[in-house]
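Inputs:
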Amino acid sequence: MSYCEANDLAVGYNSPLLEHIKFAAERGQILTLIGPNGAGKSTLMKTLAAQLAPQGGAVLLDGQSLSVYSPTARARKMALMVPRTNRTELTTCFDVAAAGRYPYTGRLGILSEEDKKQVFDALHLVNAADIADRDFDKISDGQRQRVLLARAVCQEPEILFLDEPTSFLDVKGKAELMTILRRLAKEKNTAIILSLHELDLAQKLSDAVVCVSPDSVSDIMTVKDAFQKENIQKLYKMSDEEYAFLFGKKEPPKFEHYIRSGQKLLRCGYTTGTCAALGAAGAARLLFTGKAPETVGLRTPKGIVVEVAPIYCEKTETGAVCAIRKDGGDDIDATDGLPVIANVTLLPNEHGVVKIDGGKGVGRVTKPGLDQPVGAAAINHVPREMITEALLKEAKTFEYKGGFFVLVSIEGGEEAAKKTFNPHIGVIGGLSVLGTSGIVEPMSQQAIVDTMQLEIHQAALKNGARRLILTPGNYGLDYLRETYPALMDIPIIKCSNFIGDALDAAATEHFEEVLLVGHIGKLVKVAGGIMNTHSRMADCRTELFCTYAALAGAKKEVCEALMQAATTDACLDILDQNGLREPVMHGLINAVQLHLERRAAGAFQVGAVLFSNQTGPLGQTETAGKLLQKWKES
Amino acid sequence: MKQNGTKRLTISYLALAAALLALFMLNIFCGSTALSPKDILSTLFSAGNNALAQKIIFGLRLPRAAMVVLLGAALSVAGYLLQTFFANPIAGPFVMGVSGGAKLAVALTMVVLLNHGLFTSSLTLILASFVGAMVAMGFVLAVSQRVKRAGVLVICGVMISYICSAVTDVVVAFAQDSNIVNLHNWSMGSFSGMTWENVLTAALIVLPCLALSFMLSKPMAAYQMGEAYAQSVGVSVRPFSVALVLLSSLLAACVTAFAGPISFVGIAVPHLVKRTLRSAKPLHVLPGCVLGGAAFCLLCDLIARSIFAPTELSVSSVTAIFGAPVVILLLVRKQRREAAA
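Outputs:
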């Protein structure tokens, strides 16, 4: 059960201003109310602190409705601090703090020795013991807030409310107050509810947040959710520009380089290789200058300059580390946002040598055919060159003659690698540091094509028979393998939409017999010579069906029905109804064969097997039939 | 510091008590009829044989002095309660128009009843005075809801006072000749003509009110920090403020019923007492106000009746001469603080 709960609470003066408020505060935790001026933070606070009667619902304190408590019983449980007090005269800070003992003293409010001790302890807690005898009216605002806090502490509250306690404080005052509040929550297990205007403070101080806007009060939110840009902008009705003015980082401008993809402008990022090279340069500069660089930059192989601020850059016992956040631009992949860390050690006796290895989060090569030999860290040759170049440039600038050792690691790399192709291609234990241009061009196609090419390359290495099965997806493979058990030994490569690229790669790797297996919905496009079957590139499926149906003598109505069909399966149904399926499939399959051979250009034998969702096997090209027969026999 | 504080309090209380006693004695010894100290002492401490002295001392000077003590204490405590309630050091029954309201009500009652040849008892007058005080207080409260600035509040109070005075003058004009002198004297503020019966009635009202005020000193201390703070430590603010308003009005009404409006005592005394005690705690200030208020009024009354003897000045003129500068001083200081803040 929570310590203080708002139970479908409505607050306001005379009429409800905010309704259906529901949240709870726990002891030992700091709950912050944020929201624009006039939204009702203070009204809510006053109602929670029993200064205002609820307009509906109830406030539960320690399991009981607030209205059940006598004023004294309530005051022994909750204390309130508001920013303004009346001017006092001839009142020492001790007197002010001692006012908090009210619920505990007798009829005339005379302090016992125990009370006095409590007051001194409280003043001590807020670092105000030294000003106990000063006149409360003649101290600074910061001291005043602390004394008022001591007063609340004297009350020995289990829950403490503070309405904009930082209003009149300078930076130091704010920091002091926040530190004390943290201490209170922790040491005295006090539940603390406060309202703040300073979002930066709120973000650092709070355990939980409630957003108060003029029309509603949010539930308990985590700090992370509450301070999302969208939430803050909505809460304070802030424009992008205003938000950026307040919270925009003063880092060098974001890496801004765009490419056009279809209708969209996509932001490029930089590769893990670039990050590693930047990190190495940053660490080296710290070692040479003794000062952490604010930004580091380099020219990527693509010719684009990348300049970023390190996440951190600091000295270690042996050298220096510098972390750079990977930015994939609009190409959000597994590595995006991960810190790539370069740990640089100087090797003074090894002139011009740069040794590179992979640490935690960077994978290791376990299979042949990759950029790096088996056993090496999965840092490709281009990143290695970039790191070397960056370090030697720093060395030259600072007239350093020795060499370097760089250990590249990626925070969270191990976990992220599970989402990549790495385990599949034989890089284990982490991510690869790669990139040939240094720049990530969003259109993750390129990444898929790269991976596919690599897989075909690896398949070529271990497959003596030089046979290969390509498939856009897994569809039909199981059927094929059951029918032709011999196929179990033939490598299968998923080529996604990139059928043309896969065929090219197969040619490069000197395969001799290639079988394309897939769903009619994808492969029918090949009949039209479409070698990238992504729907953004081309569709033409119904057009192809229609064309071949017309060639087979279909009537105009049938052709029209085919053109209107939503799916290839629907096309097949129409063909069945008109008894045209066989001639049409025959025509399509021949066309597929023709285009596959044209792309293969005599480099290998190629055939295709087509399946449908509904009917299973649909047919196979002539060459496919020959190949299957041959593979079955061998 | 703690030690010093207690020491200072003790010394201050003793000094105030001594001053009170001395002034009390002076008030008995001095007067328009010259009595020798020997006569007075013998009259006081042994059944004297001087009939005139006996009559003057027991019939005139003693009840008057006792009344001054009671009403002086009542006035300054009433002032202090109002200052606490309004969180304003220049609040007081006179400047806020409470005395004026009471005065008007008393004058009205007196004239109406006298014109009908009816007897006016002290209690009737106190009641009328209380009603008048409450009406004026209601007006001040209404203004204070809208205006937070102390100065403006005081100006409103002074204006109320003037209106009441003007109306009172009109009322007095309708009074029968024989009562005019009396009424006129009273409406200027005077302690003359007090009987033991008056003293008893006043004591029955003032003493319980003072005791009750003293019992409120704990919540008053909490209230000094502001309403929100008082509430947060467990003061039931509403009943408490009602009590403050009622007590201060009753005290002020009682004074007005017997002695007419007496100016500035309610502001000057609490302020001087706080300075003397170097404390603003109600627990300390309230007893100080009782002693100080009584002593201050004894002094003023002494001056009022002896400086141009046998002509008696209105006591309000004397209290104004001493009290008004204190109010000006406070106003200026407050203004300076507000400008600084």
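Remarks. The CA atoms of residues 346 and 404 of chain A lie 5 Å apart. Chain A touches chain B through 35 residues (CB under 8 Å).
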